[in-house]
Specification:
alpha/beta, binds ligand AN7, about 45% helix, about 350 residues, 6-stranded mixed sheet, globular, Rossmann fold, 10 strands, about 15% strand
Length: about 350
């Protein structure tokens, strides 16, 4: 195979990852996602600010989870595991199912019944995972998965698995490689808090190696009804339309708080109304379709702009769009007016268009 052809984050960033020549690389050519300049949002942010969207929805299974999953599944295979398991609000299960299928190993996923988006459920099922829908939320599911994987020969591939974080940190490397340095600010959604942990680790490593000069201010956003870190206590019954981040007791709580504090950033919350507003702005003004949880990053950006946070500041802001809008088509349809059904008649169509 040609070494110069892009074949995923392990091949591209292997010198920064815990892999050796013995690691079987299970890849779908994940990563290398576009960083898209956002003109509308940049104008809102102010004359010295530039906003960019890291469109992680363009990963092979439609979310950032693929970066961590390629490494977690590759390492599981290196260690001769025959089965992997995760709890998921949807995207982790879709990614685990796809990479496990590619590796030819068994995948078991626990999901909160009725609380994951249709696209994600269809992915886990079509890739052949054993999908168990439990009467309980994500936090309950994760506790069960921790118990099962402790007692049986099944590898846990939630972000408690350190290889997940290692793989996900490559998104920071890509951003630094693109700009020639880290951005000044980064807005991102926070659910189980693995991703903010991974980005911060990646940014720090690149700087320590002299591959970037600065570190971004980390700005994380939880949904208002699922904001344990903001409220400083676990939420027993988290609620939000952004089902991906409907999490009441994040596994990487401590490292998310470290990222916030070390970067002099913040972790705030945004309401479902603000999330849906940002969701629509992204699609209608920037032409970028991201799922509601991803729009939390832009909802947070808009909230900070309104508060004057970026006043007298300058530089680049990256907003991480963690998952594709097509993951949750039901939400899109519910958010807009559905098309008018009309007669197949030229005159009435011309009239309706407004000519
Ligand atoms: C689109 O799939 O937790 O803070 O089980 O799917 O690293 O948890 C998904 C999380 C943001 C939050 N955006 O990231 C799961 C799961 C999207 C997501 C998050 C998730 P973390």
């Amino acid at each position: 195979m040609n070494e110069n052809k892009y074949r995923g984050i392990i091949q591209k960033y292997k010198k920064f990852l815990p892999v050796s020549s013995k690691t079987p690389v299970i890849t779908l050519n994940e990563g290398n996602t576009p960083l898209i300049y956002a003109g509308y949002l940049s104008r809102l942010a102010g004359k010295n600010m530039e906003v960019y969207l890291k469109y992680e929805g363009l990963n092979p299974t439609g979310s950032f989870k693929d970066r961590g999953m390629t490494l977690a599944i590759s390492k599981a295979c290196e260690e001769n595991a025959k089965a992997v398991m995760c709890a998921s609000t949807g995207n982790t299960s879709a990614s685990a199912a796809a990479y496990a299928a590619r590796a030819g190993i068994k995948c078991i996923v626990l999901i909160p019944s009725g609380a994951i988006a249709l696209g994600k459920l269809s992915q886990a099922l079509i890739h052949g995972a054993k999908v168990l829908a439990i009467k309980g939320n994500f936090d309950v599911a994760l506790d069960l998965v921790k118990e099962v994987t402790r007692d049986y020969p099944i590898k846990l591939v939630n972000s408690l698995n350190p290889y997940r974080i290692e793989g996900q940190k490559t998104a920071s490397f890509e951003i630094c490689d693109y700009f020639g340095d880290a951005p000044d600010f980064q807005c991102m959604p926070v659910g189980n808090a693995g991703n903010i942990t991974a980005y911060w680790k990646g940014y720090k490593e690149y700087k320590n190696l002299g591959l970037s000069r600065k570190l971004p201010v980390m700005l994380g956003f939880q949904a208002q009804g699922a904001a344990p870190i903001v409220r400083n206590k676990p939420i027993k019954d988290p609620e939000t339309i952004a089902t991906a981040i409907r999490i009441g007791n994040p596994a990487s709580w401590k490292t998310a708080v470290e990222a916030r504090d070390e970067s002099k950033g913040l972790i705030d919350m945004v309401s479902d109304t603000e999330i849906l507003q940002a969701y629509k702005i992204l699609a209608a003004k920037e032409g970028v379709f991201a799922e509601p949880a991803s729009a939390a990053s832009v909802a947070g950006l808009l909230k900070l702009i309104k508060k004057g946070y970026f006043k007298n500041k300058k530089g680049k802001i990256t907003c991480i769009l963690t998952g594709h809008g097509l993951k949750d088509p039901e939400r899109a349809i519910k958010t807009v007016k559905t098309p008018k059904v009309m007669a197949a008649n030229l005159k009435s169509i011309i009239k309706e268009i407004g000519y």
